[in-house]
Specification:
single chain, about 400 residues, alpha/beta, TIM Barrel, Lyase, Ornithine Decarboxylase, Chain A, domain 1, 2 domains, 13 helices, 18 strands, globular, amino-acid biosynthesis, pyridoxal phosphate binding
Length: about 400
């Protein structure tokens, strides 16, 4: 998107505001699909937790992708967006048997990641096909908080517990139609990913009636100019060759599944905020914006990098700024970052704001969550209104019991 488009959106819809470029989502989907074009059966299930706006889900659905969901609410959003139940996979962690049963009743593919629920569900619903999430005991990912396939992770059933799984399957007579893994996010080294895949291939040979193998996702996207990223084309070539070979060994053409989230939407997103104040101290120049980690928590949570540009003055002389928010705690988006000279009232744009940004936002400090806008075929479409005071209090119940307390005290 061009700066003039972003400025026009900020002027029309106010700030802060999230903007998503549909063309980038489409191109990323096509890029991933093309990397595995030699696979006979490929299924890409978008990870809804990355960005769950209904308009985004409808766009994803129109491309032919399914959905990877982690809560019954995400399943309901997918159904609301018109996605067919058979194209939705439910991969929760630590949820109740009742929630899994409720989702299953909707016709959604169930993915179970612990022995206890697997046995309970198989005993009650032996005729319902189930996918099993395995833990390959592989440390991968760009941050310890997003590495989920290592030995101490709460996710998945350990590969060393396969005998327990087989015992449950035999005792219940349940059908396992898929196996799954997800090692983490921001995976750069494709050899680590391929090594984990080999573990899953070996595991798959224990189950004779599989329809698919889901290898998760976690592909790294670039966060700044010249940044490194997962070589999807190389990975696609190597993985396709190995998967096709495995299918021959298995004696059946299985579906190859992935669940991209960040890969599809991260680079499509921009977060626009207005600079409220320039504050110079003895050692730092702060640019304080009309937002905070209540709207974009990733820098404070993951130490993630978001490139920040001054779209009001993009060609100005560069100076060093620490960009901070208005939350009354440490609320830093960037420290000593080179940005074109900023004056109060300028609009700054955060890049890579499509994934895990709005979806992790909150009303902390009783602030409103911002609007969301979709930029599609040269037009801006409002896809979520900015919250108002009524949104803050709509579920609160105003009780009148304290006047009696005051009388008693008096």
């Amino acid at each position: 998107m061009e700066n003039k488009n972003l400025l026009a959106i900020a002027n029309e819809f106010g700030s802060p505001v999230y903007v998503y470029d549909s063309s980038k989502i489409i191109s990323q989907y096509n890029r991933l699909s093309d990397a595995f074009k030699e696979v006979k059966q490929l299924k890409l299930n978008y990870a809804v937790k990355a960005l769950s706006n209904l308009a985004i889900l409808k766009l994803i659905n129109s491309l032919g992708a399914g959905l990877d969901t982690v809560s019954i609410q995400e399943v309901e959003l997918g159904l609301k967006a018109g996605v067919k139940p058979k194209n939705i996979v439910f991969t929760p962690n630590g949820v109740s048997l009742e929630e899994i049963e409720e989702v299953s009743s909707l016709g959604v593919q169930i993915n179970i990641d612990n022995l206890s629920i697997l046995e309970q569900f198989g005993t009650k619903h032996p005729d319902t096909p189930v996918c099993i999430r395995m833990n390959p005991h592989v440390m991968a990912g760009g941050n310890s908080k997003i590495s989920v396939g290592h030995i101490d992770s709460k996710f998945g059933i350990s590969i060393h517990q396969i005998p327990h799984i087989l015992r449950i399957v035999q005792n219940t007579g349940m059908r396992i139609n898929g196996i799954h893994m997800h090692t983490g996010s921001d995976i750069l080294d494709i050899e680590v990913f391929l090594r984990a895949c080999e573990i899953l291939f070996e595991t798959a040979m224990n189950f004779k009636n599989l329809d698919f193998i889901d290898f998760g996702s976690g592909f790294k996207v670039p966060y700044k100019s010249g940044d490194i990223e997962t070589n999807i084309e190389e990975f696609g070539f190597k993985m396709t060759k190995r998967f096709n070979s495995f299918c021959k060994e298995y004696g059946k053409n299985l579906t190859l599944g992935f669940e991209p989230g960040k890969f599809l939407v991260s680079e499509a997103g921009y977060f626009l905020a207005k600079v409220n104040v320039i504050k110079q101290t003895t050692s730092t120049v702060f640019a304080g914006i009309d937002s905070g980690f209540n709207h974009l928590i990733r820098p404070m949570f993951y130490n993630s990098h978001h490139e920040i540009i001054n779209i009001t003055n993009p060609e100005g002389k560069e100076r060093f700024y620490s960009v901070v928010g208005y939350i009354c705690e440490t609320d830093t988006f960037a420290t000593n970052r080179r940005i074109s000279e900023i004056t109060e009232g300028d609009i700054v744009a955060f890049k890579n704001a499509g994934a895990y940004c709005f979806s992790m936002s909150s009303n902390y400090n009783s602030r409103y969550r911002p609007a969301e806008v979709l930029w599609h075929e040269g037009e801006a479409h409002l896809i979520r209104k900015r919250e108002t005071f009524n949104d803050l209090i709509k579920n609160q119940i105003d009780i009148d019991i304290f006047s009696k307390t005051k009388e008693t005290v008096s």
